[in-house]
């Protein structure tokens, strides 16, 4: 297994055995995992997850975190891999994003690369740091513009022969470049290829059957967009025209690519669901990436599991309940539209309107429930959720782009064995999103 090969975290709550995209993922201490824009490394039987600590809800540098796991389920936070140094490009007034780590066999050391920048993103550099152990702490070597050109969003790729490459947005994010690293992984030696005018960022590469698949988003700031893939038989190109990895209207299920890994004959898409007003509450969106059709496509699974050793994934099945079949209250009403399951949904929820879905079958414990909704606003909404008349929990509902595009968000609810009633949007003054359906899962 390549040192650059990532792993998959099975998270959601501590001891969860399934992957639940968009849930709040916590470590073994019960703290929310802060590892955004992440990179992954496997050393022996231990897995390492490096990422941006956004606890302070700021884009400015706080730390590159390091988490470890031996079972791909429980993640423990270790010492920070990289911390600020005043008077340098990694001070608390600077930007450190998308940390990626490779093991260099020549020097028997771990080398971290990251997007290094000023607070206004004007410096457009890469930074390099090294350590003799995976979590470090890393010694900062410096920041620079590779081959004298800008670099903002970036990633790394290590080929089968150990040769490493920097993947980066350059020239005011207009051109995307792939450049070879030196034998020590300290610098860039030559440009391998350029995708001119492509406006790409947040890259990752999976190599499969001798072909390179480059994954990246376009440049729309913190807002999501339809992420793309490009194919080439050489890192020197030529690269194919861009193609979608998910239905365009979903904007990659409201996420941006962070890292990509092979998994048997398929792969893993690992993305971030950014929330710029509360960066520390940005969620992780990880999905199976299937080559069944001949090209990589995201499998939008609400709940799923992975067998790394076997190189397989399993999508959990659940029971669907249509919101329009529920009991409407107050100002709520039935909506129609081609984007909804069965052509109908419950709308005008919140601000006096609610819906109760009855006879929801439970198994007498906490269960994942996916809320399928549409939010055509430019901002997030939220909804209250109450089981059997009990206290409400609040569930965030990111904007879906338009009122006919449906996405799902997860919530864990305690359902009694047998029939349950679940009420949505009761007792809130603001409007909730339109509710299409819910799917109740037993896998946990």
UniProtKB/TrEMBL annotation:
Q: Where is this site: Important for catalytic activity, responsible for pKa modulation of the active site Glu and correct orientation of both the proton donor and substrate?
A: 153
Q: Where are the annotated coiled coils located? A: none
PROSITE patterns recorded for this chain?
CBM6
User: Do you know which Pfam families this protein is assigned to?
Assistant: CBM13-like (PF22704), Glyco_hydro_43 (PF04616)
Per UniProt, which keywords does this protein have? Glycosidase, Hydrolase, Signal
Record's signal peptide: 1-16
Which GO terms fall under biological process for this protein? carbohydrate metabolic process
The molecular function terms of the Gene Ontology recorded here are:
carbohydrate binding; hydrolase activity, hydrolyzing O-glycosyl compounds
Residue ranges of domain CBM6 in the record: 319-441
- Protein family membership: Belongs to the glycosyl hydrolase 43 family.
What is the name attached to this protein's record?
Arabinanase/levansucrase/invertase
């Amino acid at each position: 297994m390549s040192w650059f090969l990532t792993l998959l975290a099975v998270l959601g709550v501590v001891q969860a055995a399934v992957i639940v995209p968009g849930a709040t993922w916590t470590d073994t201490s019960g703290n929310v995992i802060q590892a955004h824009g992440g990179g992954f490394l496997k050393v022996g039987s231990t897995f390492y997850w490096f990422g941006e600590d956004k606890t302070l809800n700021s884009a400015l540098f706080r730390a590159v975190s390091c988490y470890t796991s031996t079972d791909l389920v429980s993640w423990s936070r270790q010492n920070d891999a990289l911390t600020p140094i005043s008077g340098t490009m990694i001070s608390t007034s600077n930007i450190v994003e998308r940390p990626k780590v490779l093991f260099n066999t020549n020097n028997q050391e771990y080398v971290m690369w990251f997007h290094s920048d000023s607070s206004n993103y004007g410096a457009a550099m890469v930074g390099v740091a090294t350590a003799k152990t995976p979590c470090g702490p890393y010694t900062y070597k410096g920041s620079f513009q590779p081959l004298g050109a800008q670099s903002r969003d970036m990633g790394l790729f290590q080929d089968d022969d150990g040769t490493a490459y920097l993947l980066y947005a350059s020239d005011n994010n207009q051109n995307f470049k792939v450049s070879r690293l030196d034998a020590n992984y300290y610098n860039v030696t030559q440009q391998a290829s350029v995708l001119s005018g492509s406006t790409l960022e947040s890259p990752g590469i999976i190599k499969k059957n001798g072909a390179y698949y480059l994954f990246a988003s376009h440049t729309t700031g913190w807002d999501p967009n339809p992420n793309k893939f490009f194919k080439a038989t050489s890192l020197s190109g030529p690269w194919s025209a861009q193609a979608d990895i998910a239905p365009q209207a979903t904007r990659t299920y409201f996420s941006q690519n962070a890292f990509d890994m092979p998994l048997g004959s398929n792969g893993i898409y690992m993305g971030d669901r950014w929330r710029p007003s509360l960066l520390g509450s940005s969620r992780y969106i990880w999905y199976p990436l299937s080559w069944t059709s001949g090209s990589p496509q995201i499998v939008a699974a609400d709940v799923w599991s992975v067998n790394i050793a076997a190189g397989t994934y399993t999508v959990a099945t659940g029971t669907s309940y249509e919101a329009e079949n529920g009991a409407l209250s107050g100002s709520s009403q039935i909506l129609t539209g081609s984007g909804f399951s069965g052509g109908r949904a419950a709308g005008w929820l919140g601000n006096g309107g609610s819906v109760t879905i009855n006879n929801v079958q439970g198994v007498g414990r906490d269960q994942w429930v996916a809320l399928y909704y549409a939010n055509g606003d430019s901002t997030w909404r939220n909804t209250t959720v109450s089981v059997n008349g009990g206290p409400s929990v609040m569930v965030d509902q990111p904007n879906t782009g338009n009122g006919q595009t449906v996405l799902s968000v997860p919530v864990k609810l305690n359902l009694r064995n047998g029939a349950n009633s679940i009420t949505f949007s009761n007792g809130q003054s603001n409007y909730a999103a339109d509710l299409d359906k819910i799917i109740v899962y037993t896998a946990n």
